[in-house]
Amino acid sequence: MEQTLKGTIINGDEFEPVDGYITIENGIIKNIEECNVSTDTIIAPCFVNAHTHIGDSVIKDPPRMPLAELVQPPCGLKHRILRETSHDDLVCSMKASIEDMIKTGTCAFADFREGGVNGIRTLRDALKTPYLNTGTGKIEAKIFGRPLANDTDYLDSCDGTGLSSTNDLEIGFIKDIASQTRKKGKKFAIHTGERESSDISPALELEPDFLIHMTHAEDKDIKAVSDADIPVVACLRSNLITGSGLPPIKKMIDEGILVAAGTDNVMLNSVNMFSEMEFLAKINIFDDRQVFKLCTLNGAKILGLDKEFGSIKKGKRAKLMVLTKESNNMQGVKNPVSSLVRRARPDDIIGLI
C-alpha cells in the first residue's frame, strides 16, 4: 500500500526543512522528493521519549515532599503505592499514559519498570491493549526492569536493567546485577547525579550503557562521562519540579556527550514531549535544532532504534507527525524547526503516521 504526503519536511539527521513529497510504502519511507509545493503542513519525525516511569500513572497528584521520600526505593511514597495497587488498576493507568504518548506524537519510549517480573508483565499487559482502533505496534517500548532481592529472572522478559542511584543500593548487589545484565546481552542504565554528585563516579565504574539525570554533574564529572563515551538522558521538567536543579545539558553537549530527553515520572509530569521540548529550548539550550535532536534522533540512538526511528530518511519506518501551519497557534510561522520546538502543541497535530 502506497501513501504520499506533501508538506514542509523536517528532513534527514540534520533536520533541514525542505518542501516536497514523502512516499510511504508498507510503512517504510520509500522516497523523499524536494520540490516547490504550496503547503500548509509540517511533516516531522515523531518523538522518542528516552526516560519514563509510567507505573507512576496511578498517582498523578502526590503531596510535595523531598525527592528521596517521594521516589527512593523501597519505601518512597511511589513504591508503597505501587505495591498497594492492583494489577488491573496499574494496567489501566499505564494504558492511559501510553495512549497519551501516542496522541501527542511519541512513537517510542523507554520505561524504568519497578517490581521485578510482575512489574514488567504489568507494562506488557498495558501494551497489548489496542489503541485508537489501530491495534498494537503503534508505539515501540523499551523496558528496563528492576530485580526484587537477588532475583534476576526479570531479565528474560525485558530489554535491560534500569536502577536507581548507587546511593540507594548496596554496591556489590549493583555490580552483580550489571554483570548478569551484560551476560544476557542487554543494556544496563542507572540514575545518577539527581540529588547530589557523589553517586556519579561509582556509576561510571559500572560502565553503564547510559545514565539518567546528571543534574548535579560538575565539570570533572562531565569530562569523565565524555571520556567514557557514555550517553545521558536528561529530564528537565522533572528536575525543576523536584527542586533538583537544572542539568548542565549544554555543557554535556559541548563536551561531546550524546544527550537525549525524557519526561520521567508521570506523577510529576505529563508524557507530552512538546512540553519537554519547549522547556529545553527556553530554559536550558537555546538551539532549536539541537533541542529537536534531543527529543527524537538522540533518544533513538541511545535506545538502539535509530535505524528505524528518530528522523525522516529513506528506508526508515514512517513514524511521522503532520502539523498544520494554519492553526491559531501556528499561523504565520516562518521557521518550521523553531516553531515546532518553541511553540507547537499536540492540538496542532492533524495526522499521525
The major sheet is characterized as: 9 strands, parallel
The CATH architecture term of the largest domain is: Alpha-Beta Barrel
- The SSE string, one letter per element, is EEEEEHHHEHEEHEHEHEHHEEHHHEHE
Taking all Cα atoms into account, the compactness measure Rg is: 20 Å
CATH topology of the largest domain: TIM Barrel
Quick one: overall form?
globular
Unreliable stretches (pLDDT < 50, length at least 5) are: 132-137
- How many angstroms does the end-to-end distance come to? 13 Å
CATH homologous superfamily (4th level) name of the largest domain: Metal-dependent hydrolases
CATH class of the largest domain: Alpha Beta
Number of helices: 13
Helix content: 25-40%
Describe this structure in words.
By secondary structure, the chain is of the alpha/beta class. The chain has two domains: 2-45 and 310-352, Urease, subunit C, domain 1, CATH 2.30.40; 47-302, TIM Barrel. 33% of the residues lie in helices and 24% in strands. It has helices spanning 67-71, 77-84, 87-103, 116-128, 171-183, 200-205, 219-228, 236-241, 249-254, 273-284, 288-294, 297-302, 336-342, and strands at residues 2-11, 16-25, 28-34, 41-45, 47-53, 106-113, 140-145, 160-163, 187-192, 210-213, 232-234, 259-261, 264-265, 320-324, 349-352. The strands form two sheets. It has a nine-stranded parallel beta sheet. α4 links the parallel β6 and β7. α11 crosses α13 (336-342). It is globular and about 60 Å long. Residues 132-137 have low confidence and may be disordered.
